[in-house]
Recover the amino acids of this structure.
Protein backbone atom coordinates (compact mmCIF):
# COMPACT_ATOMS: atom_id res chain seq x y z
CA UNK A 1 0.00 0.00 0.00
CA UNK A 2 1.24 3.50 -0.90
CA UNK A 3 0.41 6.44 1.41
CA UNK A 4 -2.01 7.78 -1.23
CA UNK A 5 -3.54 4.40 -2.12
CA UNK A 6 -7.33 4.39 -2.03
CA UNK A 7 -8.22 2.29 1.02
CA UNK A 8 -11.78 1.28 1.93
CA UNK A 9 -12.37 0.29 5.57
CA UNK A 10 -15.73 -1.52 5.73
CA UNK A 11 -17.13 -1.24 9.25
CA UNK A 12 -15.10 1.86 10.20
CA UNK A 13 -17.30 2.74 13.19
CA UNK A 14 -16.98 -0.68 14.85
CA UNK A 15 -14.49 -1.97 17.42
CA UNK A 16 -11.93 -3.17 14.85
CA UNK A 17 -12.76 -0.90 11.91
CA UNK A 18 -12.32 2.29 13.97
CA UNK A 19 -8.97 0.98 15.25
CA UNK A 20 -7.82 0.22 11.68
CA UNK A 21 -8.70 3.79 10.60
CA UNK A 22 -6.77 5.19 13.62
CA UNK A 23 -3.76 3.02 12.74
CA UNK A 24 -3.80 3.93 9.03
CA UNK A 25 -4.02 7.67 9.80
CA UNK A 26 -1.22 7.37 12.40
CA UNK A 27 0.93 5.69 9.72
CA UNK A 28 0.34 8.47 7.18
CA UNK A 29 -2.24 6.87 4.87
CA UNK A 30 -4.20 9.79 3.47
CA UNK A 31 -6.79 8.34 1.10
CA UNK A 32 -9.14 6.36 3.38
CA UNK A 33 -12.76 5.96 2.33
CA UNK A 34 -15.57 4.94 4.65
CA UNK A 35 -19.37 4.72 4.57
CA UNK A 36 -21.77 4.54 7.51
CA UNK A 37 -24.43 1.81 7.59
CA UNK A 38 -27.01 4.47 6.71
CA UNK A 39 -24.94 5.59 3.69
CA UNK A 40 -24.25 2.06 2.46
CA UNK A 41 -26.12 -1.09 3.50
CA UNK A 42 -23.56 -3.84 2.88
CA UNK A 43 -26.32 -6.50 2.80
CA UNK A 44 -27.63 -4.77 -0.40
CA UNK A 45 -25.70 -6.26 -3.33
CA UNK A 46 -26.63 -3.58 -5.86
CA UNK A 47 -25.74 -0.74 -3.47
CA UNK A 48 -22.34 -2.36 -2.81
CA UNK A 49 -21.67 -2.82 -6.54
CA UNK A 50 -22.59 0.83 -7.24
CA UNK A 51 -20.28 1.98 -4.44
CA UNK A 52 -17.33 -0.06 -5.74
CA UNK A 53 -18.01 1.02 -9.34
CA UNK A 54 -17.97 4.72 -8.42
CA UNK A 55 -15.22 4.69 -5.74
CA UNK A 56 -12.88 1.98 -7.17
CA UNK A 57 -10.94 1.30 -3.92
CA UNK A 58 -7.50 -0.32 -4.33
CA UNK A 59 -7.34 -1.95 -0.89
CA UNK A 60 -10.21 -3.24 1.28
CA UNK A 61 -10.25 -4.07 5.00
CA UNK A 62 -13.43 -6.13 5.44
CA UNK A 63 -13.99 -5.37 9.13
CA UNK A 64 -17.77 -4.96 8.79
CA UNK A 65 -19.78 -7.76 10.38
CA UNK A 66 -22.87 -8.47 12.43
CA UNK A 67 -21.25 -9.32 15.78
CA UNK A 68 -22.13 -10.09 19.40
CA UNK A 69 -21.25 -12.09 22.47
CA UNK A 70 -22.30 -15.56 23.51
CA UNK A 71 -25.87 -14.59 24.44
CA UNK A 72 -26.64 -12.79 21.17
CA UNK A 73 -25.04 -15.56 19.08
CA UNK A 74 -27.01 -18.19 20.95
CA UNK A 75 -30.34 -16.37 20.57
CA UNK A 76 -30.09 -15.11 16.96
CA UNK A 77 -28.16 -17.69 14.86
CA UNK A 78 -30.22 -16.98 11.73
CA UNK A 79 -29.31 -13.28 11.85
CA UNK A 80 -25.64 -14.05 12.46
CA UNK A 81 -25.33 -16.47 9.52
CA UNK A 82 -27.52 -14.56 7.06
CA UNK A 83 -26.29 -11.00 7.63
CA UNK A 84 -22.62 -11.95 7.72
CA UNK A 85 -22.88 -14.09 4.58
CA UNK A 86 -24.65 -11.22 2.80
CA UNK A 87 -22.06 -8.61 3.85
CA UNK A 88 -19.01 -10.67 2.95
CA UNK A 89 -20.43 -12.11 -0.30
CA UNK A 90 -21.26 -8.61 -1.55
CA UNK A 91 -17.92 -7.02 -0.61
CA UNK A 92 -15.72 -9.92 -1.77
CA UNK A 93 -17.56 -10.27 -5.13
CA UNK A 94 -17.51 -6.50 -5.77
CA UNK A 95 -13.79 -6.43 -4.87
CA UNK A 96 -13.25 -9.11 -7.54
CA UNK A 97 -15.46 -7.45 -10.16
CA UNK A 98 -13.82 -4.03 -9.71
CA UNK A 99 -10.26 -5.37 -9.47
CA UNK A 100 -9.34 -4.44 -5.93
CA UNK A 101 -5.57 -4.97 -5.55
CA UNK A 102 -5.86 -6.62 -2.13
CA UNK A 103 -8.58 -7.45 0.39
CA UNK A 104 -8.16 -8.54 4.02
CA UNK A 105 -11.08 -10.57 5.41
CA UNK A 106 -11.52 -10.55 9.20
CA UNK A 107 -12.84 -13.75 10.77
CA UNK A 108 -12.90 -14.96 14.36
CA UNK A 109 -11.37 -17.69 16.51
CA UNK A 110 -14.83 -19.26 16.91
CA UNK A 111 -14.31 -20.87 13.47
CA UNK A 112 -12.28 -23.64 15.14
CA UNK A 113 -13.80 -26.84 16.59
CA UNK A 114 -15.19 -26.71 20.15
CA UNK A 115 -12.79 -29.33 21.56
CA UNK A 116 -9.76 -28.42 19.56
CA UNK A 117 -6.19 -29.34 20.47
CA UNK A 118 -4.65 -26.25 22.10
CA UNK A 119 -2.99 -23.96 21.20
CA UNK A 120 -5.05 -23.90 17.98
CA UNK A 121 -3.08 -23.97 14.71
CA UNK A 122 -4.55 -22.65 11.43
CA UNK A 123 -4.63 -26.18 10.00
CA UNK A 124 -7.09 -27.37 12.68
CA UNK A 125 -9.91 -25.64 10.78
CA UNK A 126 -12.84 -28.00 9.99
CA UNK A 127 -11.28 -30.83 12.00
CA UNK A 128 -14.28 -31.19 14.34
CA UNK A 129 -17.72 -29.95 15.44
CA UNK A 130 -18.24 -26.26 16.15
CA UNK A 131 -19.34 -24.67 19.44
CA UNK A 132 -23.19 -24.62 19.26
CA UNK A 133 -23.60 -21.17 20.87
CA UNK A 134 -21.91 -19.42 17.93
CA UNK A 135 -22.24 -21.92 15.06
CA UNK A 136 -24.13 -19.48 12.82
CA UNK A 137 -21.42 -16.82 13.01
CA UNK A 138 -18.63 -19.40 12.77
CA UNK A 139 -20.09 -20.97 9.60
CA UNK A 140 -20.41 -17.53 7.98
CA UNK A 141 -16.80 -16.68 8.81
CA UNK A 142 -15.55 -20.08 7.56
CA UNK A 143 -17.43 -19.45 4.29
CA UNK A 144 -15.81 -16.01 3.97
CA UNK A 145 -12.34 -17.41 4.59
CA UNK A 146 -12.89 -20.15 2.02
CA UNK A 147 -14.36 -17.70 -0.50
CA UNK A 148 -11.18 -15.59 -0.30
CA UNK A 149 -9.05 -18.71 -0.81
CA UNK A 150 -11.13 -19.87 -3.82
CA UNK A 151 -11.06 -16.42 -5.49
CA UNK A 152 -7.30 -16.46 -5.04
CA UNK A 153 -7.05 -19.96 -6.54
CA UNK A 154 -9.48 -19.46 -9.44
CA UNK A 155 -8.93 -15.81 -10.34
CA UNK A 156 -5.57 -14.97 -8.64
CA UNK A 157 -7.29 -12.25 -6.58
CA UNK A 158 -5.05 -11.18 -3.71
CA UNK A 159 -7.65 -11.82 -1.02
CA UNK A 160 -6.24 -12.86 2.39
CA UNK A 161 -7.86 -13.73 5.75
CA UNK A 162 -7.02 -13.37 9.42
CA UNK A 163 -8.61 -15.02 12.46
CA UNK A 164 -8.36 -12.90 15.63
CA UNK A 165 -8.92 -14.09 19.17
CA UNK A 166 -11.38 -12.30 21.50
CA UNK A 167 -10.91 -8.55 21.10
CA UNK A 168 -11.54 -5.58 23.40
CA UNK A 169 -10.91 -1.82 23.37
CA UNK A 170 -12.49 1.58 22.55
CA UNK A 171 -15.81 1.74 20.61
CA UNK A 172 -16.92 -1.61 22.00
CA UNK A 173 -20.57 -2.58 22.58
CA UNK A 174 -21.60 -2.30 26.26
CA UNK A 175 -25.16 -3.58 25.96
CA UNK A 176 -25.34 -6.33 28.57
CA UNK A 177 -27.54 -8.60 26.41
CA UNK A 178 -25.45 -8.51 23.21
CA UNK A 179 -21.89 -7.59 24.27
CA UNK A 180 -18.78 -9.70 24.77
CA UNK A 181 -17.47 -10.52 28.23
CA UNK A 182 -14.85 -7.77 28.58
CA UNK A 183 -17.09 -4.70 28.08
CA UNK A 184 -19.90 -6.43 29.98
CA UNK A 185 -17.75 -7.00 33.09
CA UNK A 186 -16.21 -3.51 32.98
CA UNK A 187 -19.72 -2.04 32.92
CA UNK A 188 -21.02 -4.39 35.65
CA UNK A 189 -18.12 -3.78 38.07
CA UNK A 190 -18.11 -0.02 37.42
CA UNK A 191 -21.87 0.15 38.00
CA UNK A 192 -21.63 -1.99 41.17
CA UNK A 193 -18.89 0.24 42.58
CA UNK A 194 -20.66 3.54 41.78
CA UNK A 195 -24.00 2.26 43.14
CA UNK A 196 -22.59 0.26 46.09
CA UNK A 197 -24.16 -2.98 44.90
CA UNK A 198 -23.45 -6.05 47.10
CA UNK A 199 -22.37 -8.34 44.25
CA UNK A 200 -21.61 -8.60 40.53
CA UNK A 201 -23.12 -11.42 38.51
CA UNK A 202 -20.75 -13.21 36.13
CA UNK A 203 -22.28 -15.60 33.57
CA UNK A 204 -21.48 -19.32 33.55
CA UNK A 205 -19.13 -21.19 35.87
CA UNK A 206 -16.09 -18.91 35.45
CA UNK A 207 -14.10 -21.97 34.29
CA UNK A 208 -13.87 -21.20 30.53
CA UNK A 209 -10.51 -19.86 29.43
CA UNK A 210 -10.12 -17.03 26.92
CA UNK A 211 -7.37 -15.12 25.15
CA UNK A 212 -7.80 -11.35 24.79
CA UNK A 213 -6.11 -9.02 22.31
CA UNK A 214 -6.39 -5.22 22.46
CA UNK A 215 -8.01 -3.85 19.32
CA UNK A 216 -5.09 -1.43 18.69
CA UNK A 217 -2.81 -4.48 18.42
CA UNK A 218 -5.41 -6.13 16.16
CA UNK A 219 -5.46 -3.10 13.86
CA UNK A 220 -1.66 -3.03 13.75
CA UNK A 221 -1.60 -6.71 12.80
CA UNK A 222 -4.20 -6.12 10.04
CA UNK A 223 -2.14 -3.33 8.45
CA UNK A 224 1.00 -5.47 8.87
CA UNK A 225 -0.65 -8.40 7.01
CA UNK A 226 -2.02 -6.12 4.29
CA UNK A 227 1.56 -4.87 3.71
CA UNK A 228 3.47 -8.16 4.17
CA UNK A 229 1.35 -11.28 3.58
CA UNK A 230 -0.04 -12.72 0.34
CA UNK A 231 -0.50 -16.36 1.33
CA UNK A 232 -3.45 -18.66 0.67
CA UNK A 233 -3.89 -19.85 4.27
CA UNK A 234 -5.49 -17.64 6.92
CA UNK A 235 -3.39 -16.24 9.80
CA UNK A 236 -4.25 -16.38 13.53
CA UNK A 237 -3.90 -13.09 15.45
CA UNK A 238 -3.58 -13.14 19.24
CA UNK A 239 -1.27 -12.87 22.24
CA UNK A 240 -0.72 -16.57 22.89
CA UNK A 241 -1.72 -15.93 26.55
CA UNK A 242 -4.95 -17.02 28.27
CA UNK A 243 -6.94 -16.38 31.44
CA UNK A 244 -10.03 -17.99 33.00
CA UNK A 245 -13.23 -15.96 33.16
CA UNK A 246 -13.04 -16.17 36.97
CA UNK A 247 -9.50 -14.73 36.98
CA UNK A 248 -10.55 -12.06 34.46
CA UNK A 249 -13.46 -11.03 36.69
CA UNK A 250 -11.11 -10.82 39.69
CA UNK A 251 -8.60 -8.74 37.65
CA UNK A 252 -11.31 -6.28 36.55
CA UNK A 253 -12.69 -6.16 40.12
CA UNK A 254 -9.23 -5.23 41.46
CA UNK A 255 -8.50 -2.65 38.73
CA UNK A 256 -11.87 -0.93 39.28
CA UNK A 257 -11.48 -1.21 43.05
CA UNK A 258 -14.83 -2.89 43.72
CA UNK A 259 -14.97 -4.66 47.09
CA UNK A 260 -18.27 -6.55 46.84
CA UNK A 261 -18.83 -10.19 45.92
CA UNK A 262 -18.69 -12.08 42.60
CA UNK A 263 -21.57 -14.50 41.97
CA UNK A 264 -21.64 -16.98 39.07
CA UNK A 265 -24.92 -17.48 37.21
CA UNK A 266 -24.68 -21.10 36.08
CA UNK A 267 -27.95 -20.83 34.14
CA UNK A 268 -25.94 -18.93 31.49
CA UNK A 269 -23.81 -20.87 28.96
CA UNK A 270 -20.03 -21.21 29.26
CA UNK A 271 -19.56 -21.69 25.50
CA UNK A 272 -16.24 -22.99 24.22
CA UNK A 273 -14.18 -24.31 27.17
CA UNK A 274 -10.92 -22.88 25.77
CA UNK A 275 -9.71 -21.24 22.51
CA UNK A 276 -6.05 -20.31 22.74
CA UNK A 277 -4.62 -19.51 19.31
CA UNK A 278 -1.22 -20.64 18.10
CA UNK A 279 0.24 -17.32 16.90
CA UNK A 280 3.64 -18.70 15.80
CA UNK A 281 2.86 -18.20 12.09
CA UNK A 282 2.27 -14.46 12.58
CA UNK A 283 5.31 -14.18 14.87
CA UNK A 284 7.49 -15.83 12.19
CA UNK A 285 6.18 -13.20 9.74
CA UNK A 286 7.54 -10.57 12.17
CA UNK A 287 4.57 -9.33 14.22
CA UNK A 288 3.93 -9.56 17.99
CA UNK A 289 1.34 -7.97 20.28
CA UNK A 290 2.28 -5.02 22.53
CA UNK A 291 -0.63 -4.24 24.92
CA UNK A 292 -0.62 -6.39 28.07
CA UNK A 293 -4.08 -7.36 29.41
CA UNK A 294 -3.86 -5.42 32.71
CA UNK A 295 -2.78 -2.22 30.94
CA UNK A 296 -5.47 -2.66 28.29
CA UNK A 297 -8.22 -3.10 30.88
CA UNK A 298 -6.96 -0.12 32.92
CA UNK A 299 -6.92 2.15 29.85
CA UNK A 300 -10.36 0.95 28.74
CA UNK A 301 -11.90 1.55 32.17
CA UNK A 302 -10.38 5.06 32.27
CA UNK A 303 -12.13 5.84 28.96
CA UNK A 304 -15.36 4.14 30.09
CA UNK A 305 -15.65 5.94 33.45
CA UNK A 306 -15.14 9.38 31.82
CA UNK A 307 -18.09 8.68 29.51
CA UNK A 308 -20.21 7.09 32.27
CA UNK A 309 -19.39 8.95 35.46
O1 LIG B 1 -17.15 -12.92 25.24
P1 LIG B 1 -18.28 -13.90 25.20
O2 LIG B 1 -19.67 -13.37 25.17
O3 LIG B 1 -18.14 -14.85 23.94
O4 LIG B 1 -18.19 -14.89 26.50
P2 LIG B 1 -17.28 -16.15 23.61
C1 LIG B 1 -16.95 -15.38 26.93
C2 LIG B 1 -17.16 -16.11 28.24
O5 LIG B 1 -17.44 -15.13 29.27
C3 LIG B 1 -18.38 -17.08 28.26
C4 LIG B 1 -18.56 -15.55 30.04
O6 LIG B 1 -18.03 -18.24 28.96
C5 LIG B 1 -19.43 -16.29 29.02
O7 LIG B 1 -20.38 -17.12 29.70
N1 LIG B 1 -19.22 -14.38 30.65
C6 LIG B 1 -19.27 -14.15 31.99
C7 LIG B 1 -19.88 -13.39 30.02
N2 LIG B 1 -19.99 -13.03 32.25
C8 LIG B 1 -20.39 -12.54 31.02
C9 LIG B 1 -21.16 -11.41 30.65
O8 LIG B 1 -21.65 -10.62 31.48
N3 LIG B 1 -21.33 -11.21 29.30
C10 LIG B 1 -20.81 -12.06 28.36
N4 LIG B 1 -21.01 -11.79 27.06
N5 LIG B 1 -20.08 -13.17 28.68
C11 LIG B 1 -17.67 -15.26 21.20
C12 LIG B 1 -18.57 -15.61 20.05
O9 LIG B 1 -17.70 -16.35 22.09
O10 LIG B 1 -16.32 -15.07 20.80
C13 LIG B 1 -18.46 -14.53 18.99
O11 LIG B 1 -19.90 -15.74 20.50
C14 LIG B 1 -17.02 -14.26 18.65
O12 LIG B 1 -19.12 -14.96 17.86
C15 LIG B 1 -16.20 -13.99 19.88
O13 LIG B 1 -16.48 -15.35 17.98
C16 LIG B 1 -14.74 -13.80 19.53
O14 LIG B 1 -15.83 -15.88 23.71
O15 LIG B 1 -17.82 -17.33 24.35
Amino acid sequence: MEKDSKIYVAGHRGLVGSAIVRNLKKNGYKNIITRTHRELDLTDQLAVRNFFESERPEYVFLAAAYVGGINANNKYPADFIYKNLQIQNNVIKASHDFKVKKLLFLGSSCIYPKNCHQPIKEEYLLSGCLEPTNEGYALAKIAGLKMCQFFKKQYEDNFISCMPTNLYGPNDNYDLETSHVMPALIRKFHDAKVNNKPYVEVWGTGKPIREFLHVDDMADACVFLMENYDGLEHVNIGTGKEISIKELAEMIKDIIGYDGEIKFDKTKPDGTPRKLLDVSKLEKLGWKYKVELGDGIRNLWNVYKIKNC
About this structure: The longest helix spans residues 77-97. The radius of gyration is 19 Å.
